[in-house]
UniProtKB/TrEMBL annotation:
Residues 1-58 form the HTH lysR-type domain. GO terms for biological process: DNA-templated transcription. Belongs to the LysR transcriptional regulatory family. Keywords: DNA-binding, Transcription, Transcription regulation. The lineage of its organism: Bacteria, Pseudomonadati, Pseudomonadota, Gammaproteobacteria, Pseudomonadales. GO terms for molecular function: DNA-binding transcription factor activity; sequence-specific DNA binding. It comes from Pseudomonas coronafaciens pv. coronafaciens. SUPFAM superfamilies: Periplasmic binding protein-like II, Winged helix' DNA-binding domain. CDD domains: PBP2_CrgA_like (cd08422). This is LysR family transcriptional regulator. The keyword NADP does not apply. Gene3D superfamilies: 3.40.190.290, Winged helix-like DNA-binding domain superfamily/Winged helix DNA-binding domain. The keyword Transcription regulation applies.
């Protein structure tokens, strides 16, 4: 059994497409088909159902997939250990992160990371929804919300408190709220998945519903609306750090409550056999966050 054949199978399983696997591995579709056939011959079973329109795993393919991933991870670890430069990484790194955080924090650090590690490929999925990292084959998820799945491995990277903010022109028109109760006199821009804003008062949790004329289903839309003077928004520090530093948004620090304190967290599906490329990415992100810590 050739490890290159196993890599082809894993790529097909990830994208459910021979042509997609060929493109990601830099091979021709014919070469991918031949390597898959060679692996199936070695194992004596059919791993993939192939039609003109779709590709799906057979029951035997579903059983073999986790073993294939283990083999590839072990191969990657062995290669990383034997390299003269132990700091390089290779293979495909699959990352998911919230949209704004990914665009403003992760994207700027990727060119240097990939230049230093030319054998590294990165698949980045930006979404404001919680992604099933185990089910979708994600190596690491960057999250800024409370981690509710105890089966996942979480590593805190940096503090990420929520911030109430508004544009300067909105505050000129409507005034600066000083205490929590005054929010009911303001336009509050709600993220549809989080209609309640969370605070603490004397150590006790307090929540209020964000009431206003505009809501959106994405953090980017909420941030844009806030910049355009449509109301107050509660976003996380890393979502609005640049705007606050530039002056296009101002913090609204209420006197009687403190916004919910979160952290930027790296979430892994397992702590077993974490590939070098994953550890390198997490360490680099943590270092970048420390440069601009709260």
């Amino acid at each position: 059994m050739q490890i290159s054949d196993v890599e082809v199978f894993a790529a097909i399983a990830s994208g459910r497409s021979l042509s997609d696997a060929a493109r990601r591995l830099g091979l021709s579709p014919m070469a991918v088909s031949r390597r898959l056939a060679a692996l199936e011959n070695d194992l004596g079973v059919r791993l993939v159902h192939r039609t003109t329109r779709s590709v799906s795993l057979t029951p035997e393919g579903e059983v073999f997939l986790p073993h294939a991933k283990t083999m590839l991870d072990a191969n990657e670890t062995a290669r990383a250990t034997l390299k003269a430069d132990a700091g390089t990484a290779s293979g495909i790194l699959r990352v998911t992160a919230p949209s704004v955080f990914g665009q403003t924090v992760i994207m700027p650090m990727l060119p240097a990371l990939m230049l230093e590690n030319p054998a590294l490929s990165i698949d980045l999925t930006l979404s404001d929804s919680i992604v099933d990292i185990a089910g979708q084959g994600i190596d690491v998820a960057i999250r800024i919300a409370t981690i509710r799945d105890s089966a996942l491995v979480a590593r805190s990277l940096a503090p990420n408190p929520r911030v109430v903010c508004a544009s300067p022109d909105y505050l000129v028109r409507r005034g600066m709220p000083l205490v929590l109760d005054e929010l009911r006199h303001h336009q509050c821009i709600a993220l549809q998945a989080m209609p309640f804003w969370s605070f603490t008062r004397h150590g006790e949790p307090v929540t209020v519903r964000a009431l206003g004329s505009f809501s959106a289903n994405s953090v980017e839309a909420v941030r844009t609306a806030c910049r355009q003077g449509m109301g107050l928004a509660m976003l996380t520090y890393w979502d609005v750090q640049q705007e606050i530093n530039e002056g296009s948004l101002r913090r609204v620090d209420l006197e009687d409550v403190i916004p919910e304190q979160l952290s930027v967290t790296a979430v892994l599906p397992t702590r077993q056999r974490v590939p070098h490329r994953v550890r390198l990415f997490i360490d680099r992100l943590e270092a970048e966050l420390k440069k601009s810590a709260v």
